Amino acid sequence: MSDDTLEATQVAEPGPVRATGPHTGRYRLVPVVLLVTGIAAVIGSWRLGLGELTNPGPGLWPLVVSIAVTITAAILTVIPDTEAYEKWTRRTTLLAGGVLSLVVFILLFTAIGFVVPAFLLLLLWLRVFGEESWRLALTLAVGGTAVFYVGFAVLLGVPFPDDIVVGTITRLIGM
Amino acid sequence: MDAFNNLGLGFSVAFEPMNLLFVFVGVVIGTAIGVLPGLGPTATIALLLPITYTMDATSAVIMLAGIYYGSMYGGTITSVLLRIPGEAASVVTTFDGYQMTKQGRAGPALGISAIGSFIGGTVAIIGLTFLAPLLAQVAVAVGPASYVAIMVLGLFLVTSLGTGSTMKSLCMAAIGLLLSTVGQDPITGTARFTFGIPSLLGGFDFVAIAMGLFGVGQLLHSLERTEKAQAITTKIKNIWPSRKDFRDSSGAIARGSLLGFVIGVLPGGGGVISSLASYALEKRRAKDPSRFGKGAIEGVAGPETANNASSTSAFIPLLILGIPSNVVLAMLYGALLLQGITPGPSLIEDRPDIFWGVIASMYIGNVMLVILNIPLIGIFIQMLRVRTGILATFALMVVMVGVYSINNNPFDMWVVLIFGVFGWIMIKTGFDPGPLVLAFILGPILERSFRQSMLISDGSFGIFVTDPISATIFGVLAVFLTYSFISRRRRAKAAAAPARAGADAQ
User: Fold this and answer.
1) H/E/C letters for each residue in chain A?
2) Residue B425: which of A30, A94, A140 has the nearest Cβ?
């Protein structure tokens, strides 16, 4: 652990020079979350039982690691590193929609199989995020769904959840 | 000669039609993704991991290795033509490569890169062929304390020499180690940090984390950028460099091969560092250093040679010690684990077909790459027309379906999505996901070696000093840390002095 503390004093040194300016708050958000995670992990490891160095318990190694998380996150909280931060733009909010579409995709996929949700997801992403024309987006979405279904379910034999579309088609052919 | 027998075995594996096909597929995909900005080798291998799961182990590694060294060739193309590095190791190539394009010398820049890459790659494979068996004999005797030291050194180098802030990278490495502790304790079987979720008992799936952080994270991020693909207006002619070009760059290529090979073997080595080192070396050696940054052909030839040599020799620690030295190789390590193969000192004995087959396939792959990158380069340039939106959409579907197919469990889709959001936040806030993934892979090996060391030494940390390899590594690390501490303080003082002088003046 002595290595970590060495690290701490070392980097803390130029601190006051760098952590100036009124807008450092937003740079601290992620480090604070990491710091809380680290502290929680330290407590969690302690509860798992540390054992002894000759006979380590399940919590000893996690404790070493979570102390490393805590120390590094604490340093980043005290001296936020403002480098490489990207600006939030209007398109950033669009992304919430992108994530939401994936949530819906996974839920639908589990419920009604691959074909319908895959088509909808491809169409949405091509049309809205890719800004392709309706015509191209529809063509690619239909073609893409077919290629993925044949590739994964038929050729690689991946067992997808029961599919309402494919199920209906096979039943119709079966009759 | 033993090496020739082994290589004979390797070539008999590599020349099997299926494996030839997979080398070809690998290097073509590698070149292609090197050309396409935003989709690096790490993300691509992450996307393809679930597919390799269904393939034969040898073919899978042959293909993935092809993607890795192929991307080193491909990354050059956009660096030279558009000043957009296709992958991190090609950043250096933009310095002089793009200047050469502006002077109408794009052809020779691309030509010398491909030739240098071929020479560097081949020199490194020859080194790998003859050194690997010797090193494997030594590696068997390497004890757990040395393993701990080597891994700590690797993680340290990756975090301090990589792109971005060292403290952020160290923090990410620690998070990666923490994530790897989720699941059952390897010795007592106690559940750690599983929060009562049965799917977490086996730990997080490496593929799901890698695909989330690199795949989904990268894709979400690419959607934010609205810029359309840039059109290539440069006509590429005279791709075969002139006699003078060869004369100017032959020294750089020779030095780059050697330098790259050595750096690649070190833990934490590989592409980026070796290309930077070669550029610095060439600039220092030049009679007229001011030519650098203005289209000096050595500034293209050296780094391109070095990054290929190092990405090849980086297979030495992976295949012989079972320690991936960078993130892309961590992906390959994960692919081998998926196949039920643990790389390590015994791999060369237990699975000579994989070991020598992969090495032999690299000779073939490098020949294929020269052909792809010199006469057929025009085809790859056409790929720059594919729009990001379409590419991202289909890649996303590959991720979602692919991750499901590993365990046929929708739980992994949720893991990918959550880590995708994390990955995107990390990109936005300047945290590098690379050290996290590397640490996640090294975590279990590190814990095992640490516990074994403690058992051997009866709970004394003295073992890290008495073990010669570990003592040397920790010694070097201590010197390095002290040096960087002192130089940082000096720099801080130097920066403070003019500021104070300015304040006094007022």
Assistant:
1) CHHHHHHHHHHHCCHHHHCCCCCCHHHHHHHHHHHHHHHHHHHHHHHHCCECCCCECCCHHHHHHHHHHHHHHHHHHHCCCCCCCCCCCHHHHHHHHHHHHHHHHHHHHHHHCCHHHHHHHHHHHHHHHCCCCHHHHHHHHHHHHHHHHHHHHHHCCCCCCCCHHHHHHHHHHHC
2) A30
Residue B261's pLDDT is what?
92
- Model pLDDT, residue B235: 66
φ, ψ (nearest 5 deg) of residue B192: -115, 130
Is A145 within 8 Å of A118 (Cβ atoms)?
yes
Buried b or exposed e, range A63-78, using 16+ CB within 10 angstroms: bbbbbbbbbbbbbbbe
**What residues of chain A lie within 8 A of the CB of B149, using their CB?**
none
Query: Cα separation of B170 and B181, whole Å?
Result: 17
Task: Tell me whether residues B417 and A56 touch, CB distance under 8 A.
Answer: no
B292-301 average pLDDT score: 89
Inter-chain CB proximity B429 and A72 less than 8 Å: no
Q: What is the rounded distance in angstroms from the CA atom of residue B66 to the CA atom of residue B25? A: 8
Say what angle helices B352-373 and B2-14 make with each other, to 10 degrees. Answer: 70
Q: Nearest by CB to A89, from B224, B424, B431: name it.
A: B224
Q: Considering CB atoms only, which of A17, A48, A95 is closest to B192?
A: A48
Q: CA-to-CA distance for B423 and B417, rounded, in angstroms?
A: 10
Helix or strand run (H / E) with residue B108: helix B106-139
Distance from CA of B459 to the nearest CA of A (A): 4
Q: Is it the case that residue B190 has pLDDT exceeding 90? A: no
- Answer whether A129 touches B (CB < 8 Å): yes
* Residue A71 tokens, joined: 């120390």
| Digit-coded pLDDT (tens) for B385-444 | 777 788 888 888 888 888 888 788 888 899 999 999 999 998 888 888 888 988 998 888
Q: Looking at the complex, report in whole angstroms how far the Cα of residue B420 sits from the nearest Cα belonging to chain A.
A: 9
Burial annotation B172-201 (CB, 10 A radius, 16+ → b, else e) = bbbbbbbbbbbbbbeeeeebbbbeeeebbe
- For residue B420, which residues of chain A lie inside 8 Å, CB to CB? 99, 102
At residue B406, φ and ψ (nearest 5 deg) are -65, -55
Backbone torsion region of residue B459, taken as left when φ is above 0, otherwise alpha when ψ lies between -120 and 50, otherwise beta: left
For B79-93, the pLDDT digits (tens) are: 888 777 766 777 888
Interface predicted TM-score (ipTM):
0.81
Q: Do A130 and B397 touch (CB under 8 A)?
A: no
Mutation to test the B interface, candidates A7, A13, A30, A162, most B Cβ within 10 Å: A30
* B227 to chain A: closest CA residue: A130
